[in-house]
Amino acid sequence: MDMDLKDLMELVQTTARGVGAEISSPWFYLQFGLILVATGIAYAAEAAVRNRVDMTSLAMGWPLPLRHFVRVMVSSASAAVFTLVVIISRIVMYHATWPSRSYLLMVAAKLGLAWLAIRLLTSVLRNEFIVKLVSITAWFVAALSILGQLDATVELLDSYAIVLGGLRLTPLLVLKAGALLIIALWFTNVASNFAESKINSASDLTPSIQVLLVKIIRIGLLAVAIVIALGTVGIDLSALAVFSGAVGVGIGIGLQKIVANFISGIILLADKSVKPGDLVTIGDNTGRISAMKTRYISVAAGDGREFLVPNEDLVTQKVVNWTYTDKNTLVKITFGTNYDADPKLVCKLAIDTAAAHPRAQKAKPPNCILTEFAEAGMKFSLTLWLADPDGMDNVRSDVMLALWDAFKREGIRVPYPVREIRVRGGALPVETTVEVPN
Question: Where is the Mechanosensitive ion channel MscS domain positioned along the sequence (predicted)?
Fold first, then answer.
């Protein structure tokens, strides 16, 4: 520990002496001036290229993925131009004079490379945590390279290892695999989004087939990305076979519901029992399916609420699909009248009222039948067909309000219940019958 501390103090002192000598040299100010010039050229070039590319892309009508790629490149133009100018300046000074007189340019070049890497990656990544992780890693690597400790750090990370079967697992291997996996997953996301846009634009595919194809492509690309990332860093996948038993137990116990929902989602997409856009009733909730995910479906209700229903529930429970084979929907309205009304006139008024509604189908005219002679009056059932199930409650309310107005015009009254009340007590028993007038 004493030797390590002594070496560290010597490194700090040597670095301080080198920095002091560098600052006192006129070559330092020349390099500093070149760095300022490179900065000005970089930002001027980015502004010019950004305006030019934007106008060109709009004029030529480039597709969206290509425009996005070009904008990513343009957003990194300042870092690229700065790094290029600094590297060229450093090469010229390195060969024209002593190598030590271009040290500041070497530092600026390494920082420029880190800046360029950060700009490229952060312009395509959307996860804030990954963006911060990439930025910190890039600056840390640049700092180690400037201090000349990058190779030593790499050797240190590779010196600690855990042997699992035929796999030698080191911190360096984990970092490499993580970095490659992030890059591979980004390319996977871009490719799957592009495939999804093409599949969704195919009018000859049903919504269920579109969602199923997108899920298969995403899963396949994800598996390929993981295999490529692990294989690139030298991890033999057969060496991981020792974990297969533990993973199987974990899936069977801890991930049982997740796997069940995933398989249920595939079943729903394959048998086409529900699809995006269907109007469904699940339990007491009715709404239209807005999205089908790997674990759940999203059902948007008419009041703005959105229910997230696990896929397994749709396979194991009763689901009413209002638009499974036919979107035509039958609306049923029950009502009653007193016995003074003519039942034939009541049915005619009800049919005419329902037929007058703008959403009532002409090909399937409304129908009204007398269903019961009840204690308080006659009961009727009115049915009408709609082209789709949207807004059934609103249609039912409109027809009932119009029917009320029609009854008022014809003097037809809705029955009131008849109640018989008997009061017993006191010296004289009293029996009273109260009939509410019709």
Answer: 258-323
User: CA torsion angle for 390, 393, 399, 401 (degrees, to 10)?
Assistant: -140
Task: Give the number of other CB atoms < 10 A from CB of residue 376.
Answer: 16
pTM beyond 0.90: the answer is: no
Residues in contact with 199: Cβ distance below 8 Å, sequence separation at least 6, in sequence order: 205, 210, 213, 214, 217
Question: Does the pLDDT value for residue 42 go beyond 60?
Answer: yes
Question: Where do we find the tokens 């899963």?
Answer: 219
- CB-hemisphere CA count at 13 Å for 119? 20
In CATH, what number does 329-410 get? 3.30.70.100
Residues in the chain: 438
Residue 286 has pLDDT above 90, yes or no: no
> How far, rounded to the nearest angstrom, does the alpha carbon of residue 34 sit from its chain's CA centroid?
47
**Are the C-beta atoms of residues 275 and 206 closer than 8 Å to each other?**
yes
Measure CA 189 to chain center: 12
Q: Topology of domain 272-321, per CATH?
A: SH3 type barrels. (2.30.30)
- Beta carbons of 274 and 280 less than 8 angstroms apart: yes
| Cα 421 to the center of its chain, rounded Å | 64
CATH 2.30.30.60 intervals, the chain: 272-321
